Amino acid sequence: MERKLMSLKEAVEKFVSDGDKIAIGGIGRNRCPMELVREIIRQGKKNLHLIGREKGMDFDMLIGAGCANKVSFALVSLEEFGLAPNFRRAAQEGTIEIDEHACGTIINSIRASALGIPCIPVKGLIGSDVLRYSKTIKEFICPFTEEKMVLVKALNPDVAIIHAHKADEYGNVQILGSPWEDIFMAKAAKKVIVSVEEIIPHEEIKKNPLLTSIPYFYVSAVVHIPKGAYPTSCDGYYESDDQHVKEYANLARTPEGFEEYLKKHVL
């Protein structure tokens, strides 16, 4: 097995390119790869197509920093702290391409990519306005039941960025708690960067093989970043910092406030 442990800067430089479709792990304020997101901003990556289900600060920061030009999502929100302000501005001003989904369709678009198939049927969304505008979800008649359903296009991410609890230096990754769509993302993407709270010996991986959520052959790089999900939570390690999220929500209401946030916490 090849040793895949590398620095944050090296991993992003090597595996994230301008124009990539990038699937971002975690959900809401839970186990999002925030330090990887901050490094993408620091390196000034451009024209990224962001893919995720229920996203928050991660998507919003990349949009506000000018790193993204398209988003595929079911929800982008700061939850009880309100709408995601950079996302909302970009959507209203038409400066970002919107590919809106329901949770079931975005999950299955990632799943189809993981399975290596071009599209996948989903029972839902019939009658929804999402279908009127979507270029990636189309109605069809099931040839077996003659039931009206939808086909969801596989999004085929170039890279997935994920934060997890533990990994060895070879890229065997342990996610303790719900994996959300992260395992599908790792299987779907051509390149996978995983930041982790702890690097553990390979012997520990071998002692508990059933704890391996993502095996080494899917992983391109492992980065050791304690608190790498901050200010979102990491199950069993730390809770989300709600005061930090509230500060972000207040500052990001204006482009000038967002720049202030970047200077203070990112750049």
Automatic annotation (TrEMBL):
SMART domains documented for this protein: CoA_trans (SM00882)
Family matches, as Pfam families: CoA_trans (PF01144)
Top-rank lineage group of the source organism: Bacteria
Enzyme Commission number: 2.8.3.12
Annotated keywords: Transferase
Transmembrane segments annotated in the record for this chain: none
Entry GO MF terms: glutaconate CoA-transferase activity
PANTHER family: ACETATE COA-TRANSFERASE SUBUNIT ALPHA (PTHR13707:SF60), KETOACID-COENZYME A TRANSFERASE (PTHR13707)
Name of protein: Glutaconate CoA-transferase, subunit A
Species, as recorded: Thermosulfidibacter takaii (strain DSM 17441 / JCM 13301 / NBRC 103674 / ABI70S6)
Organismal lineage: Bacteria, Pseudomonadati, Thermosulfidibacterota, Thermosulfidibacteria, Thermosulfidibacterales
Primary gene name: gctA
